[in-house]
Amino acid sequence: MGRTYFVEEAIGQYLSDLSTKLKPYVTGLLIGQCSPQRDYVIRAVRTPPKEEQKEDNISLSKLASIDEEWITTHASQVAQMLPGGLLVLGVFIIATPEMSKDSQNALRKLIFSVEKSLTKRRLWKPSEEEVSDRAALQICSATKKVVCRTYDVQDPKSSAKPADWKYQSALSASWLALDCTVNVNIHIPLLATSPNHDLEKYTKNGLNRWSKQIENSVFLINGQVKDDDIELLEGQKKLRGNTQSSTQFSDVKVLTQLSQGSSHRSTATVQVCSASINLKGAVKCRAYIHNNKPKVKEAIQALKRDIINTLSDRCEILFEDLIINEGPHKKNFEREYHVLPQRLFVPVAGSSVMLSDYKFGDEAAGEIQERFVEMLDQSVQAEDIHIAEEINTVNVCPVTDNMDNTRQKQLTKATLLLKLQQNMGVVIAAAVAVFASIFSFNYFSD
């Protein structure tokens, strides 16, 4: 028996509108959540046109002309804008009847390309019992006929399986949310034997080790440790009514284990290092989970992945920004202090779910609004962008020749610590702006 996709009713109208405006075909992504029993689709997003298509009004006439790299890049950027629990769970094509024969082959190719691209950037591995089916949705622009199939992305030789596509009103109007703030202090040494420090590579390796700590952490949900297999809302009142969006929040504390169990042995290694990277600060994390009797393990897994993704994504965005603004050689930059982008959230109409993004301090609301239109085909009002208050950070200057190195580093660290404490105080005091995040990237060279 094939999988069933429960789909937000508004998506039907969105896809219908696309079929009348864009011909002969249009591609896009399906966004939602997998669960053992059923899958949920809460957004469909068309692939943004390339600049030359905008300018010249080019209408590509063959499915063979689909730009696979452009679609996978779009999928990677969309994935950065999804909070925990949400993922790109499929691809759609709306095409004329003449193209229907080739549509399924194009969909299959896109599904595996998108999944390969998304897997590369993840610092976590899917569990064995995790759903690995992804949706391939084909719609005829003339007859409006919908055909949904799935492919197992863990099996390169997977063949198409039929799936049900069912629309439902207010599908995600009362999903559950888990919130937490994670304090991070990651020290990444750079070996003296490495001739050229590729900070991006070293940072990813350091984050990889840190992600394993998060995977092994203890999660307190509303102050309690709960068994994995019990229902998340057991012992709590479930919100009634699903016609208006309302969110039931759970506050989560993350307890990182300081040491391994007695069965694990560890050895210390002394290595000569010429520099180090320090990631310090507090990150705001959030995950959403469906309200169909979700298990605790589903919710915690979604939140773990959001914690890991949000830090990894911020570092990736920082390096991309440095390369764009200062040139490719700046991958090995020598600046000693950088501020990672802050997280922000925006609501989805008719849903309790909020989508995510990141902004640097000098970015205006208009730039954020443009990004949501381009990446997610969603108009966002400036007042709906939930971000933290702007907080100044300390810019660490390089060590000068006329000052003792050790004393300079002590002063630098003391100043940073004081400033971070001040920032944390502001974040805690800002009760309304619960999505604040201040984070710093430090590079110290001996």
Name the poorly predicted regions. Answer: 389-437
Outline: globular
Q: What proportion strand? A: 25-35%
Count, helices: 8
Largest sheet: 8 strands, mixed
Please estimate the helix content: 25-40%
What is the element string, with H for helices and E for strands?
A: EHEEHHEHEEEEEHEEEHEEEHHE
Number of self-contained structural domains: 2
Arithmetic mean of pLDDT: 81
Provide the spatial order of strands within the biggest beta sheet.
Answer: 7-6-5-4-2-3-1-8
Structural class: alpha+beta
What does the oligomeric state look like here?
Answer: single chain
Structure summary, number of beta strands: 16
Ends: how far apart? 62 Å
Describe the structure.
- The chain has helices at residues 9-21, 51-56, 68-79, 100-120, 199-215, 296-326, 365-376, 405-429, and strands spanning 4-8, 25-34, 39-46, 87-95, 133-140, 146-152, 161-162, 164-168, 176-191, 218-221, 248-255, 273-289, 337-339, 342-347, 354-359, 438-445.
- The chain folds into two domains: 4-50 and 62-173, Cytidine Deaminase, domain 2, CATH 3.40.140.10; 175-231 and 247-258 and 270-328 and 338-387, no CATH class.
- It has eight helices and 16 strands.
- It has 446 residues and is an alpha+beta fold.
- Residues 389-437 have low confidence and may be disordered.
- It has an eight-stranded mixed beta sheet. A six-stranded mixed beta sheet has the order 10-11-9-12-16-13, with helices on both faces. Strands 14-15 form a two-stranded antiparallel sheet.
- The longest helix has 31 residues, at 296-326.
- Keywords: Membrane, Transmembrane, Transmembrane helix.
